[in-house]
Amino acid sequence: MAPHPLLARIGIELPIFQAPMAGTSTPAMAAAVSNAGALGAIGVAAETTDGAGKMIRATQALTNRAFNVNVFCHRPATPNAAVEAAWIERFRPEFAALDAEPPASLREIYQTFRGNDAMTAMLLETRPAIISFHFGLPEESQIRALKQAGVILFGSATSLQEAQKLVDAGLDAVVAQGYEAGGHRGVFDENAPDDRLSTFTLVHVLARRIVLPVIAAGGIMDGVGISAALKVGAAAAQLGTAFVGCPESSADQGYRAALAGDAANHTMMTRAISGRPARCLANRFTKLAENIPDRDVPSYPITYDLGKALHAAAKAKGEFGFGAQWAGQGAPLSRPMPAADLVRVLAEELAAA
């Protein structure tokens, strides 16, 4: 199978993309993946403009090859004092069991990229080869400025309708995120009905129905999975959970232990950690969240303020079960090894497949 023209445009040999996992991917990981002939990535959605700029420059110092910088384009949070107060009270017993106090109030801890002039200016200054969008699209003026600067633009889609919006906006490729994927579900509207399409169904549909290259994302952990994605029309496959166990990731010891244990067999989609649907390894947080109705969860990312505080309080006591241990349904296939070695193994498996 001939390589897709998208790979030549990016300047890479392998149809293997590392997912830009905010909070887990690092400059060292992205550079190792890119230097190995695949596409590395960093997620800067949880960073300030200054922090994001430092991450990009640190990656550029480690590789002269292309890498992807991911930003979130969610709608700004809708504060609701009553819902937030009730949320704090709901989790007060968990904090008390840890000899800790919950936050007195909850904050919108992350800014959206949509309309963020400072972040846009920084990206235009650092000019990474690729910028990708999650949760929707930024403003038209931002897309225009980035394209004029020569940046290749990707966007996540979980449906044909979302993918068509990316086409209409002039993007260069669509990341088709299946329901199996770990981390935050990329739906544009988290409150709209979700058809929960699998990765391979979504890729197959998009490859037939849209004009842009399609990148398969969700549940892919090895060369056999990459090969299967290419056969249904993907230009490349994006793997996230496969890289969490790499020594270059910033996953803590609890996250790594959970990924290597039975929890990997039981991932769950939950809003309770951050305020948006996201797939996590089964842990104490997901157990608490099982019977919480969506209407009781504060707006993203306000919910995340409490989630992070609870994880910090628990971690101080040696308990890691309240962490945002994002992982896809392919988690049992995780193989911890250096990122460059994983790329080599994936490439060998792909060639054999």
Description:
The structure is a single chain. The protein has helices at residues 5-10, 27-35, 49-62, 81-97, 117-126, 140-148, 160-168, 199-209, 223-231, 241-244, 253-260, 284-289, 302-315, 339-352; strands spanning 16-18, 40-43, 67-72, 130-134, 152-157, 173-177, 183-184, 214-217, 236-239, 267-270, 278-281. The mean pLDDT is 97. The chain has 353 residues and is an alpha/beta fold. The protein has an eight-stranded parallel beta sheet with strand order 1-9-8-6-5-4-3-2. The chain has two domains: 5-76 and 112-248 and 338-352, Alpha-Beta Barrel (TIM Barrel); 78-110 and 265-330, no CATH class. It has 14 helices and eleven strands. Helix 2 runs parallel beside helix 3, helix 4 runs parallel beside helix 13 (302-315) and helix 9 (223-231) crosses helix 14.
Number of domains: 2
By DSSP (H or I, 4+ residues per run), the number of helices equals 14
Poorly predicted parts: none
Determine and state the CATH class of the largest domain: Alpha Beta
Strand order of the largest sheet: 1-9-8-6-5-4-3-2
Précis, in short:
Helix content is 40%, strand content 13%.
Tags for this entry?
single chain; 353 residues; alpha/beta; TIM Barrel; 2 domains; eight-stranded parallel sheet; 14 helices; 11 strands; globular
